[in-house]
């Protein structure tokens, strides 16, 4: 089990670290999206935002077949609008989108960026490869992660005792204690996040059951699992004869939205309205559907309650009750919703984020521990084997290098001119270019210096992100906090937390004492330390005795 734990964790450890790191950041997906669009920071919601947004849609797309308006919330300050033209092609290709100012209803010109969606997609689809291949790779790596967790629990007989044990400045023992503590501290989270990740890829990894029952129609399977094909308000309205078609051709005045919002507020006093969907706007067949701001149960994946009104008279036509959910689907929904964290309140979201940070540290300490445990072998050989040096470089490049690359992604979002062609692609190119440069830097520098320099650089860049935000058109941190714009303030605060973590690691590494070998002691010099040995370091065989 110890052998299985070591190699299942190492072989795909670098990929798992990237998946954990970007997945942890994705708990603040909406906040990252808002921060990377500083044009949205001045939007201020008000009591009549819904009415203003509908007026904006009348100016923007009066002849559309449908309007969908996601109203501002705690994590987003603007109205997210989408619409479909009457002759639009099916699917996402026929959907047009815009951000509306919550105070005026006017469309906001927003810079081209993938925002946090790039990091979110990267953590299970990677980049620049066919989606199915990437998901298979991540799925296999996730299975390796589950094996590593289970074998790690079996290997550590004193698992709970080890949680309360940390021996600093003890070389290998310190790294082992750190790995054990981070593994045990959030062990339920690690198991949940890994197993639920496999569930999210279940139909791809194990498709045979659904394929047999639904005769290969995957779409039919997903529709039935979700309880229905599509919500009624999302389906095209059936034709009602020649009289209806003639009436639809003439624009009509739609009912005011305020009375409908008041009815919905009475029905959902704790949540209010989150989304407005208008089918066939400005026609006698208009229907207005109001959806609650999130759900109240993970069993149905936070599905919203709905109220459907006649778009002309304002009469309520339907308030459909939620359909019953089977026990297997309920279990699936609870686990996968916990993985995604989309319905978490701020306190739970921070708890999930911190658990993700602990999991990321667990993966990092495990890969570093692999190098530290093999130092006696290197001292015995008197040289650094090429395989050991390769792991050292990959560790630095994938751990500290990813942090630097992520900050480069955020910096490029603000520094690349707004009118640049393929601007979002250039942001992503900057991310990967800096990541590659970090790997090259790790190859050219000694192990310890590479760690120290990259961790220090990451700490500096993370600490500068709030300043960059204020200097490039974003709402400064104090102003965002006073205005209650926690999507922006939360991003800056997380950046400062990450700066502190990276800075602390760089400081401890910089001030870590170096063990002295007999040969270097005679020369009055220090031998390379465990994490700081370079590619050409020559270690005396007697150093093993000194280590003991």
Radius of gyration (Å):
27 Å
Briefly note the structural class of the backbone.
Answer: alpha+beta
Say how many strands there are: 8
Total DSSP helices: 24
Task: Tell me the overall shape.
Answer: globular
Return residue spans where pLDDT drops below 50 for at least 5 consecutive residues: 229-248, 514-548
Overview features:
globular; 548 residues; single chain; disordered C terminus; alpha+beta
Task: Summarize, please.
Helices cover 57% and strands 7% of the residues. It has 548 residues and is an alpha+beta fold. It has helices spanning 2-11, 13-25, 29-35, 49-60, 116-125, 131-155, 159-163, 172-185, 187-200, 202-205, 208-213, 218-225, 242-249, 258-267, 327-340, 346-373, 375-381, 386-415, 423-444, 447-471, 477-483, 486-510, 518-523, 543-547, and strands spanning 66-70, 79-84, 95-100, 107-108, 273-279, 287-292, 306-310, 316-318.
Would you write up a description of this structure?
The structure is a single chain. With 548 residues, this protein is an alpha+beta fold. 57% of the residues lie in helices and 7% in strands. It is built from 24 helices and eight strands. An eight-stranded antiparallel beta sheet has the order 4-3-2-1-5-6-7-8. Helix 8 runs antiparallel to helix 16 (346-373), helix 9 packs across helix 15 (327-340) and helix 18 runs parallel beside helix 20 (447-471). Mean pLDDT is 83; it is low at 229-248 and 514-548.
